[in-house]
């Protein structure tokens, strides 16, 4: 889930054009912020439940179908069109791969062998990956001592979560690597968006709907090649996948962009720091996942490091 600047969880947010003026919503932004945090925080639990009845790629495809349906319905209600231009659609296809199809699939595969709690914490490393990759891909991003310190602190936090001093005992290396790769994919996707799609005239909704539509098409091609059709359709996992898509991918995007328009991306991206807390609570309370001291301690260190990488030095007032 990626936020505007980083991720969603089972943040996997779509391309962000320039924010224009919008009418003030009836529901206070703090309430919508809390709802968005809950939706994306519970997404990792829903992935876990979904993979109990369906293959990971099927979970991801179902998620994308439900989420795309929500955004296309919103487009129809608002009488907006999808963006035009072959180049725009090519860039959106790349964004769909790195912000939706790939990370969603990696998280689903990861949760076959790791807890939803660990997956949620790995998701919080997206700002760390973003900072590391932007130093290579974006010439305007200059490293500062504070941001480099944040990157190092976040790395220490990841090692703490994994219990490095115990030889990563109790953690599946492959599953953990896939969850971290999913977070890195979000960061790479946002760099692509920033370089190719930022500031476009099309609405957030139109760009989001097109991106999810392309991601759904990508998964519709890949999923039959690597999975066989389900022999049964367990109800609870099916409901989890549907909720994951309709809420975590569809409704959450609508809430997120409303927040960006009202309070700006800096405040909206703070949702990133609540997602692992909610994912951990949901996994422990509802799924009975075990929690050792190093997991929440490491998560706090990761979040502190991520916050440092996103900070900017204050400008001194001119004399």
Description of the molecule:
The chain has 319 residues and is mainly alpha-helical. It is 68% helix and 0% strand. The chain is built from twelve helices and no strands. The model is unreliable at 2-22 (pLDDT under 50).
Would you spell out the secondary-structure blueprint of this structure?
Layout: H1 29-50, H2 56-78, H3 86-110, H4 116-123, H5 126-137, H6 145-162, H7 173-196, H8 204-226, H9 235-263, H10 265-268, H11 275-287, H12 294-310
Helix pairs in contact: 1-4, 1-9, 1-11, 2-3, 2-8, 2-9, 3-7, 3-8, 4-7, 4-11, 5-6, 5-7, 5-12, 6-12
Task: Describe the structure concisely for a colleague.
Helix content is 68%, strand content 0%. With 319 residues, the protein is mainly α.
Radius of gyration: 19 Å
Distance between the termini: 43 Å
Low-pLDDT segments, ≥5 res? 2-22
> Biggest β-sheet: count, sense, barrel?
none
Broad structural category: mainly alpha
Assign a percent range to the helix content. Answer: 55-70%
What's the tally of helices? 12
Shape: globular
